[in-house]
Predict the 3D structure of the following.
Amino acid sequence: MLTRLSLLLCFFFGWNTETWAQLSKEFKVEEKYGFNLVQVDFNIYKGTSKISRHIEDSPVKISCELSKVNILPDFSHRIKDEVLYSELIHRNVESENLGKSLSYKLFSSQNNDFDHKWMVNLNSNYLYALNFQFGIGKAYFDLSHLPISNCHIKSASADITVDYSEKLANSVKMDTMHISINMGTLQANNLNFTNAKYMVFEANYGSLNLNFSERMPEASQIFATVGAGKVDLQLPHDNQPAIIKIKSTAMCRTSIPKHWKDIGDKTYVNKSYDAKAENLLSLMIDVSVGSVTIR
């Protein structure tokens, strides 16, 4: 009987210790003047993240819920040469080996399986350059209403979703959107609203699902590279001038709509293709092992 009581007490206090370990933190930039660009550097090793617009007047606000905390995030910001630099870093100091990290990726089915939750809020009144790095988890970017000049996202094994949910185009010209995933899936929707000159998407092992829901307003070059996995590209109906060059091996299956014209050297154009079109979409797709599907 005493043994059972001891076990129950251990379970109770152990459970409460883990519950109490959860911690909510908020980091906020109060400055509103003295800069014309906001550089956001965000580097976390684990968690589920959401990046979107908020209606508060602060240029950067980051909220998080942390569990099993043994080190707090490091947040800093400064203004130099009319640029507001804001940086959050949360390093991995837990004794997680590679096997455990992979088990999170392969077997976790709920968001809270990744322990930490992050909310990054930005303001539509400021111009942003984004630099995000993720370890394990999931990240959702809703870039509606946000003026973005550059966007760089790097993931070790976090699945990434990028969207313009309200279907409002970037109000400034973006130079480059670059998303690189070591292992995982990229779901990129409404890419026609990025207003980006260059888009670069990479996955060593995984899937690139790229969606263009409407015509591009201006010309853009897109590069999609996968080591092992797939590229699934969805374009608007033939009213978008497009040319696609595919680099693949014998271990890659390719599916191209029949009405696209093969002009040689694994290069295809649609019915609206015009080499001088002001909104020409030029794509280079490179898949070593897997499949390429154009819809």
